[in-house]
Amino acid sequence: MYEEHRHLTWMLMLLFLTGKCSTCVLCSKWKVDYQQPHMCVVKGSSVVILCSFSYPDNHIVQEVMWGHKNIFAGPFIYHSGSNNSSSRFQYVGNKRNNCSLQIHQVEHSDEGKYAFRFITNSTNGQWTGKSGSTLKIVDFNISMTKLKRHESIQEGDSVNLTCTDRCDVGNFSSVFTWFKNGEYLQDGRVLQLRNVSFTNSGNYTCSLKTGIETTSGVRHVDVEYGPRNTSVSVTPSTETLICHSRANPAVENYTWFKIFNDHISAAGHQHELHLKKDFQGDHNYFCMATNKYGSHNSSTVLHSRNIAFTLPANKKRKEENHLLCFYSL
User: Fold this and answer.
1) Which residues does the UniProt record annotate as the domain Ig-like (predicted)?
2) The pTM of the whole model exceeds 0.85
3) Strand ranges inside 121-248, DSSP E
């Protein structure tokens, strides 16, 4: 019996001397496990670093802490013995075996390695899970694909906007939300715009439904179309006609036409048409607005002189041989 005990003692001493005991016997009780050694997180979202730890049964954990980059000596982003931790870093574990950490509203500066450390009531009873969990912080982006190959987006085209990130974390279509000019549109990773018109032009963003701070960069959709809603306004005091038209890209050319005795002739090529003050009779005018997608005409405006009119009965009657009048026809 004595010989067996002495043999066991020598075996243990040999293990200590070769350094194997610290791994196979003692250190096996001290351990920190990270469920995900590498994590990709979208800026503005929240993330939980899942973590568990173990230690010898005769120890009581007194302090827990999390380090970011400086994982051994600190400063620590969370320390159970300090009130200086940022509210963005929340310890959701305990002092028994759960060491999970939640980070709220993740920022780019949060990128890097995180490691858990704990201290027990025993001399030298402390441990750091130095393998840690490393965070990569990325932004949302919006990619755009068109079914037609021309560079610009034109009325009638179909466009897909896809919310993407560099994590390549798979399909989370149910947790994405789309906005146009800040107003909610729909949920889903892909926003399909079919048979687009000028009303689809605007600034689009996507975000995670679970985090209002996860908004992507802005993707501007610019639908191009030919002139429309072309009209003429009048400035009577200067006898000026002004052509207005809605177009994208903007109107490149304006052309004015005069109709007199059933004959149409060009009258000008500017945005405004200044009429001559020495003419007599009636003339009809209209303008045509043109860009690369086509042209559109306004309605006709009648410019007339030599019209007599009567004021109401309680007013002085007056006739004027050079009265200027405009009528939209």
Assistant:
1) 142-224, 227-308
2) no
3) 126-128, 133-138, 141-146, 153-154, 159-164, 176-180, 183-187, 190-193, 202-208, 219-221, 223-235, 240-248
